[in-house]
Amino acid sequence: MSETSPLTPGPIGSDHPASDRSWRIWTSVFIAGFVLVSLVIGFVILPWRSESGVDPFTAICRALGLPGSEKIPPDPGAAKASAPASNVTWTIETNRLLSNASAAKGTALAKDTCGACHGEDGKSTDPEQFPNLAGQSQAAIFKELADFQSGDRKSDIMAPIAQALTREQMADVAAYYAAQKPDDLRAADSAVMLKVDLLAREGDPKRGIPSCDSCHGPSRSGPEDAPLLLGQSAPYIEKQIGNFGSQTRHNDVFERMRTIAHQLTPEEAHALAIYYHGMPASN
Amino acid sequence: MTYRADRLILAHFGVAFAAFALAILLGAWQMTVRSGLEPAFTSPEAYFASVTAHGTIMGYVMPTLFIMGFGYFVSVTTLDRPLPSLRLAWAGFWLVIVGVAMALPAVFSGKATVLYTFYPPLTGSVFYYLGLVLVVVGSWFWVGLMIWAMAGWKKDNPGKPVPLAMYGNVANAFLWLWTTVGVAVELLFQVIPASLGWTQTIDIGLARTLFAWTLHPIVYFWLLPAYIVFYTIAPRAAGGRLYSDMMGRLSFLLLVLYSLPVGMHHLFMDPEHGTGFKFLQMMLTVLVTVPTLLTIFTIGASMEIAGRLRGGKGLFGWIGALPWDRPMVLATCLSFVLLGFGGFGGIINMSYGMNAMIHNTSWVTAHFHLIYGGTVVIMYFAIAYEFWPKLVGREPLSLKPIRLQLWMWAIGMVVTTFPWHILGLEGQPRRVATFDYTNPMIAHWQNWTIVSMIGGYILLTSGLLFVWNLLTLYRGAEADRQMHYAVAVYPPHRVPSALNGFDLCNGLVLFLMLMAYGYPVAQFFFIKDYPALVHRVDLGN
């Protein structure tokens, strides 16, 4: 085309304005018509025919993504949730509080108060009773402290301690312990049966049990407040699973852990506790 | 052809293909990780950083630079006049280079592992996003120059039809301008403020809608140079003539119209839009098949003309008579075959109902690799083999390694992507680094994954052979530097203004975009929704 070839002039096109105009008109008519037909099918005919039990107006509104005149039935979970499992919500304010927290400010508190049981370096003096906190997620520590304060989680020891703290202090001390170095461990997969290892890593879809690791594993891809489990003592973990299963502990949002723990057999709970107790990573 | 811009074009092609070589290396490595054969290589962090780099280069860097270089070449050779401003062209090039130099280190240091599709609320280093913004802004310089070049030519040649290749080239410039609006708004108003820490939340529904706006037409932006070459070079390479110049113009116009208002077919499973708009965009997606079928018909007819001119007889005899030893003819055929498979998969993807079977599975990855690698990139190879000798004035030493390279690429594409289709139908999710093949439920996936890994290494070999072929060109004999385009059976003397400019086209695109995206975007400003908290992958939270 850089070189025009002097062949027979083709019959295509013309510089005639009338031809240009008819091109413009017919192209536009075709496209607008196609859009119109699609809109009628997509917004009127299909919703009307396929949404049974609603009036046509509502059906069309739904196709737009609007509720229409339809009354949205109340969420059945809403009434039950009138007493929330926890008062902690992961709002921007909470996240900002945590990200502005200072581990340095938390140091004194950790040494004066928490260290007696949980260890100044976050390694518990009695891990069967008091969890290790070194390297625990800041959000999880903060959430448990807030729940002890509000009474959503019951403990005669922790309640008065937490009640004496401000939210900033909780965030600071949580940041302090999150920054401590935990023992170098890995899951004790060789100490348990394969099916327990699978339960931890993949869950059991038949019983609707998700994998423990999906929330409590190293990626912590679940809710913010899920704690890391690796490195807690086996009796402590087993006791907490039992408490969730018997509803004695109930500060799990959406009853996640109560639902799961309820379905675990005592043997599974025991084996999972051993699994997450862990073993030295160098083994 | 008096005017040239060889250094400018070679700079674009050179960087594009260097980045491409890096990206195919990463691709082969990713398949090795997924195969589970070398557990030592298996780190999800490294895998996803690599996927981000692979996608960023293949999606934004390589095609953008290649298409810019291609556009400059077409502009100078078809209009036979200099670029309106060589200085602006170089400025655009350097903006892209600075952008790449900002974005890629952020990716390779693991600070921007968000994949090339961003996935907010994941948010990475601001350098990644700013780098990509510069790439886009640099490409807008190209858009401006292409429109300017065509306008200048039309002013000096009133009433004459714009050369078909240039018409397609400017169609692509307008397409790219429309395409980039979505991602530019998403980056500038949503993602970059979050990555700077200015905002703590991000409206995911809006972000995904804006990205879908870009993510589908971007594929047609990559594809259009291939289509331009089908119409304006392949018939000449086969020794024939273009069956219809008008069909080419119509196809380019329709591709611009119908590739834009369709991105919501990526969001069929998303909750943020009503079913009506998904249906509308599905219907518009169907129309994209029209210019594709027009093209297959026209190029098939052009090839038949060539085959018959070369003495081919009978119903199919002309096929055998085609000059299959010429890389352009071979590449066009391979590209069509792979377009057939990729397009078939695409029809499943864009069907509102059927999409549910394969949504977010390896099937989707297979589809876009077949279209991108099998249809688009194989034509980029053919274009490079066509243009490079003109740019450096050297003939290839031999056509054999060139044909071998094209065959290997096509075979590699089939071996890589067919197993993904099968795995996708079996439910294998995409965007997953590793699978536990000891699990009996999915153990048999490993065999197919290994097959596709072998395909990945065939592609890698072919890609490296491509670079080698370009390098050996410099040792070849002196070549004719004159570029010749295919002549139509009936060269146009006058064409309707609708097919010689873009006023009507842009008006119709505006109408279609308003219908398809007007309400779906506007609703985010009056419906109560819940923005997500930003997750900063570069800060580890």
Question: What report would you give on this structure?
Answer:
The complex is a heterodimer of chains A (283) and B (541). Chain A is mainly α and 283 residues long. Chain A folds into 3 domains: 34-67, no CATH class; 92-178, Cytochrome c-like domain (Cytochrome Bc1 Complex, Chain D, domain 2, Orthogonal Bundle), CATH 1.10.760.10; 185-280, Cytochrome Bc1 Complex, Chain D, domain 2 (Orthogonal Bundle). Chain A has 13 helices and 2 strands. Chain A has helices at residues 17-50, 56-64, 76-80, 92-99, 103-118, 138-150, 158-163, 167-178, 194-202, 213-216, 234-245, 256-263, 266-277; strands at 185-186, 279-280. In chain A, strands 1-2 form a two-stranded antiparallel sheet. In chain A, α5 packs across α8. Chain A is elongated and about 90 Å long. Chain A starts with 16 loop residues before the first helix and ends with a strand. The relative contact order of chain A is 0.10. Chain B is mostly helical and 541 residues long. Chain B has one domain: Cytochrome c oxidase-like, subunit I domain (Cytochrome C Oxidase, Chain A, Up-down Bundle), CATH 1.20.210. Helix content of chain B is 69%, strand content 1%. Chain B has a two-stranded parallel sheet. In chain B, strands 2-3 form a two-stranded antiparallel ribbon. The mean pLDDT of chain B is 94. The chains are: A mainly alpha (283), B mainly alpha (541). At the A-B interface, α1, α2, α4 and α9 of A face α2, α9, α10 and α18 of B.
